[in-house]
TrEMBL record:
TM region(s), chain numbering: 12-35, 47-65, 71-93, 105-125, 131-153, 165-186, 192-213
Keywords: Cell membrane, Membrane, Repeat, Sugar transport, Transmembrane, Transmembrane helix, Transport
Subunit (UniProt): Forms homooligomers and/or heterooligomers.
Function statement: Mediates both low-affinity uptake and efflux of sugar across the membrane.
Topology in membrane: Multi-pass membrane protein
Biological source species: Urochloa decumbens
Ribosomal protein listed as a keyword: no
Name this polypeptide is given: Bidirectional sugar transporter SWEET
Superkingdom classification of source: Eukaryota
CC per GO annotation: plasma membrane
Family: Belongs to the SWEET sugar transporter family.
Length: 299
């Protein structure tokens, strides 16, 4: 039905969906180029790529069972190839702990769970019931994937920063959801259309949040990260204040000695005076830190 000339608009939207989705699959290339250059995954997570690979595998299986869904097969085959390359690159450059974690979720999700779905649908169902069952499995998984951005939306609201929610990616995902919704609507496939309603909704929310927070002053998130940032900022204050106070030390020590000699008091050594002055300056620095540190993260 995807290639049928009786549904030219379905073919047009399916082709457009292939193009947009293909560009979306290529979006992580800068991330993996950075990983390749640094020979390290630098804290990046492998879960999104393993999940994307599972999603592509699941939709290919659905399209093959339903038959005559060439446009679904083409884009998801491309997705399988691209996501596999990402996962392999991640596995090559990750540390031992990350490699073990990636291997576990890959074997559990892409081998174990996908194999169970295949056996479940092929052995227990036939004909239309098999398509319906597999279709709802695809819908359920797609909905769970679309719900995932809720954590990013929460983070944007909390930090008032859109650093981790690029507008171009949100836009491409929204356009992809619209196109695939129309494709599913035109070929009368609710399993393709339904998940993309949610995808479109979340995409619009992300873009609205981006426009709202793009010029806002970021707020440091609470918890351990806030403590780390507060400590780092306090250390900056220490370094700056010491740099400002230290030039005065020699002048203060040189001015004290002549006065003490005239008064008949025992002269203090220069080293002792410098140490005393340094201690006084250190106390001043500590006061500055204790006053400025609580203000970190206030917009």
């Amino acid at each position: 039905m995807g290639f049928s000339l009786q549904h030219p608009w379905a073919f047009a939207f399916g082709l457009l969906g292939n193009v947009i989705s293909f560009m979306t699959f290529l979006a992580p290339i800068p991330t993996f180029y950075r990983i390749y250059k640094s020979k390290s995954t630098e804290g990046f997570q492998s879960v999104p790529y393993v999940v994307a690979l599972f999603s592509a595998m699941l939709w290919i299986f659905y399209a093959l069972i339903k038959s005559n869904e060439i446009l679904l097969i083409t884009i998801n085959v491309a997705g399988c190839v691209i996501e596999t390359i990402y996962v392999v690159m991640y596995f090559v450059y990750a540390d031992k702990k990350a490699k073990w974690f990636t291997a576990k979720i890959f074997l559990g999700l892409n081998v174990g769970f996908f194999g169970a779905i295949m056996l479940f649908t092929l052995l227990l169902f036939k004909g239309d019931k098999r398509i319906v069952t597999l279709g709802w499995i695809c819908v359920g998984f797609s909905v769970s994937v679309f719900v995932a951005p809720l954590s990013i939306i929460k983070r944007v609201i909390q930090t008032r920063s859109v650093e981790y929610m690029p507008f171009n990616l949100s836009l491409s995902l929204t356009l992809s959801a619209v196109v695939w919704f129309l494709y599913g609507l035109l070929i009368k496939d609710k399993y393709v259309a339904l998940p993309n309603v949610l995808g479109f909704t979340f995409g619009v929310v992300q873009m609205v949040l981006y426009v709202f927070y793009m010029n806002k002053t970021p707020v440091v998130a609470g918890g351990k990260d806030a403590g780390k940032l507060a400590t780092a900022t306090a250390d900056d204050h220490v370094l700056v204040n010491i740099a400002k106070l230290s030039p005065a030390l020699p002048e203060r020590s040189s001015e004290v000695h002549p006065v003490m000699r005239e008064m008949g008091l025992p002269a203090r050594s220069c080293a002792a005076e410098v140490a005393r002055a340094a201690a006084a300056n250190r106390d001043t620095v500590d006061v500055l830190v204790s006053r400025h540190s609580p203000a970190v993260g206030v917009a």
